[in-house]
Design brief:
The structure is a homodimer.
Chain A lengths: L15 H5 L7 H14 L10 E2 L14 H11 L11 H13 L15 H15 L8 E5 H13 L9 E7 L3 H10 L2 E6 L10 H11 L4 E8 L11 H14 L2 E5 L16 H8 L8 E6 L12 E7 L3 H12 L6 H11 L9 H27 L4 E2 L8 E2 L2 E2 L3 H9 L4 H13 L1 E2 L1 E2 L12 E4 L4 H21 L2
Parallel strand pairs in A: 1-12, 3-4, 3-5, 5-6, 6-7
Antiparallel strand pairs in A: 2-8, 7-8, 9-11, 10-14, 13-14
Helix pairs in contact in A: 3-4, 3-12, 5-12, 9-10, 13-16, 14-15, 15-16
EC number (chains A, B): 2.6.1.2
GO molecular function (chains A, B): L-alanine:2-oxoglutarate aminotransferase activity; pyridoxal phosphate binding
Keywords (chains A, B): Aminotransferase, Pyridoxal phosphate, Transferase
């Protein structure tokens, strides 16, 4: 490698937005966790025998089994010669044929339209209609490479292509899922943080939204509000009243609503329910039902957890036709989302019906996954709240807990001494001593002076008990050490 | 839908970069072609019975059959229960097991690292090493969601996040593949067009590169040169000497080289051969072998044509370590490319070997595809050159012909009268009269005052003969009409 002077790209010439971008879910702690895995493999002695990757909502990585119906449909789509075998139920064959019939040349190796295969867009629209009780138009459904891709495509429309105080402003919850802050950095846009109320189940307070946008207005052009429901990393589930207030606020402030609803199947708390922004906005009637809204969904979460297929979609409503044409034009250069991911989305929104050969197995597998998640959500909430120096809102939905940790002054000083945020310092210590890999709250942003970490609730129940026991021991030792 | 005033997004507020972005391969003619298909289906009488989509390099859509080995491996990766069946050869099972063993939880439903699965990165590196005779480091290989995704990720690194004359400049060939101009528009970067020499097989002339960059310098910061070899849309294959000249030019001008080599398997002309930029740069030795280079490859072209899987990769060499760390950080927020697409890439770079149970069928299928493409490349070159008012360089590689059409003055006037470029006017007429869907040369940019269109060479031989006959009739009628 030559001297720095000879390189086109140095830290001085690299896109400064890339330099600034952070994505904590795969940040330094995760990189260290991967190193530790290699060290263990190489026989290096550690105080633990394996690394627990609780940093990322990666269901199958932590032992969740794929849903048979989904994988059987995918096997046939990939290798249609099997359509003649008697290894597969008839409804699986029918589904694979339906998808293949919509593929050019009957092959999932051909491109689909950029918005996805028509039959799948239709199935998504039917799913949304049945979920909400309001019609959904297939031509408003855009399939994508995971929800992230759809989110970034819609955010791109909202940019101003200007700098300084003319930058597009995106209201984002704090704590937030770092895809949003990463995209805002990459685009040179302006983040408008609004704080969720930890003391009231991470609810969303309109006065706080108003404070937040008022402070940001001199610095940007506020264009959109991001709401994540069920919450990541918070595990909260918004009430309908809360959603109504947010919609009314967005209307007053003329904001595009970006509703991240990828955890809509993951609801655990007694009395909690998922209400979509689409439904709530339709119920409110005019003028709210004419507001621009993008709702995002993923094949990676829910009961299926098929992260690796990169399936997702957006329903984007109330765009002006000429804006929609530009939206679809802008995604056309990406050609299309992977057809396998689209097929998984289809299986998720159009599941086997009672009487179908696959129905019983499907429903058993689905309910088993969701029941276990519910059990783990309760277990983790209860355990965190039983430990000194930790408080944790109920994991009402999604797949994460975001406990608050009360760190001794000495620990905060020790963190400062090594140039880390106190919660990074804590999470690094947790990783090195127990092998448990979490993400520091600072990666999601958090209220000044508070410290958190995010952990998934995904490990199998027995393993999770053990993890929590190890965690408790670590935590109490940590408190004692820095008392 | 409310009045324009109530919308957050109007043509006035929409990201102006999105407004400007064009991607002709899926532009207005293709939208019209899809309408025509619907009209035909609905029984509307047309002068043709079906639409021939010669606008896009979508192999399976035009009848190419998938390679059995690839699809068998994919079936097993998707549904590992089949690993116990005797329907699959042992080498297919071994390959699927190898991929699954590298997946977290042994499931392609889990995320891989953002750069892709390690075993596949290793297989890619081995393929490159064997191709070039120079070592390739797996940690420099980045798997991606099709080549497009990898190209955009590297281009992102090179942006300046500044406007006006401080924008990043990207040298792009004219004619070019419109992904580049679309990305440049989206990023608000500056295109630096250099013209390929149509009179000399679309070769690349260093004097032209020098003219091009000199003219652009006052308007941008030139950061990179894009070279597409084999050429899209030109069908040209660069000689090694030509590649050497480009590398030396890039060195003098301190440019990052973006080598789009997705058609590296598609070489047809007598005496033509594919030379990679990596190999040529290594052969040149110091200081050239220390230059920053990204080479892009895809699972969508070649003999496999698996577009719908969205598999691709980049080999990116000679980055400073701190720049590489930022590169990998910047793609981490995308989580990972689809595992199915990664698995297809693996099958493409690590094919069955002589003696393997799948070898004979694999090699027969592969050679059949490539032999037919070669036959069609010759057929189309010969036919275009036999028609009055058309000249076409030999389709030496890739999957397209880019014939020049000499249009009568009256046709040019008629186009102006309806506000179209002359070649759009021509391609629309071709579509309406024959059902043949091509892309006007203006979509790829072309030298002022020249007119072209791009057509793929993909339809099956017999169909292609018929298409070319219909084309010839149309063309001669068109000339007669506007004489």
């Amino acid at each position: 490698m030559g001297s720095i002077d000879e390189h086109v790209l140095t830290l001085g010439t690299l896109n400064p937005n890339v330099l600034e971008l952070q994505y904590a879910v795969r940040g330094p702690i995760v990189i260290r966790a991967t190193e530790l895995e290699k060290e263990l493999k190489a026989g290096v002695k550690k105080p633990f025998t394996r690394v627990v990757k609780a940093n990322i909502g990666d269901c199958h990585a932590t032992g969740q089994k794929p849903i048979t119906f989904i994988r059987q449909v995918l096997a046939l789509c990939n290798y249609p010669d099997l359509l003649d075998s008697d290894l597969f139920p008839e409804d699986v064959k029918a589904r694979a044929r339906r998808i293949l019939d919509d593929c050019k040349g009957n092959s999932i190796g051909s491109y689909s339209d950029s918005c996805g295969l028509q039959v799948i867009r239709e199935d998504v629209a039917r799913y949304i209609s049945e979920r909400d009780g309001y019609p959904s138009d297939p031509s408003h459904v855009v399939l994508s490479t995971g929800a992230s891709d759809a989110i970034k495509s819609v955010m791109t429309l909202l940019l101003t292509a200007k700098g300084g105080n003319d930058r597009a402003g995106f209201m984002i919850p704090i704590p937030q899922y770092p895809l949003y802050s990463a995209a805002i950095s990459e685009y040179g846009a302006y983040p408008i943080p609004y704080y969720l109320n930890e003391k009231n189940k991470w609810s969303l307070d309109v006065a706080e939204l108003e404070r937040s946008i008022a402070e940001a207005r001199p610095h940007c052009q506020p264009r959109a509000i991001v709401v994540i429901n069920p919450g990541n990393p918070t595990g909260s589930v918004l009430t309908k009243e809360n959603i109504q207030e947010i919609i009314k606020f967005a209307k007053r402030e003329k904001l595009f609503i970006l509703a991240d609803e990828v955890y809509q199947h993951n609801i655990y708390a007694e009395g909690a329910a998922f209400f979509s922004f689409k439904q709530t906005l339709m119920e409110l009637g005019s003028p709210y039902d004419q507001m621009e809204l993008a709702s995002f969904m993923s094949a990676s979460k829910g009961f299926m957890g098929e992260c690796g297929y990169r399936g997702g979609y957006a329903e984007v409503i109330n765009l002006l036709p000429e804006v929609r044409a530009n939206y679809y034009k802008s995604i056309s250069a990406k050609l299309c989302p992977p057809i396998s991911g689209q097929a998984v989305v289809d299986c998720v929104v159009n599941t086997p019906k009672p009487g179908d050969p696959s129905y019983e197995l499907f429903i058993r597998e689905k309910e088993d996954v969701l029941a276990k998640l519910k059990e783990k959500a309760a277990l983790i909430t209860q355990l965190f709240n039983s430990i000194e120096g930790i408080s944790c809102n109920e994991v009402a939905g999604a797949m994460y807990a975001f406990p608050r940790i009360y760190l001794p002054e000495k620990a905060i000083k020790a963190a400062e001494a090594v140039g880390q945020t106190p919660d990074s310092f804590y999470c690094f210590a947790l990783l090195e001593e127990t092998g448990i890999c979490t993400v520091p709250g600072s990666g999601f942003r958090e209220e000044e002076g508070t410290f958190h970490f995010r952990t998934t609730i995904l490990p199998p129940v027995e393993e999770l008990r053990e993890v929590l026991t190890n965690f408790k021991t670590f935590h109490l030792n940590f408190l004692a050490k820095y008392k």
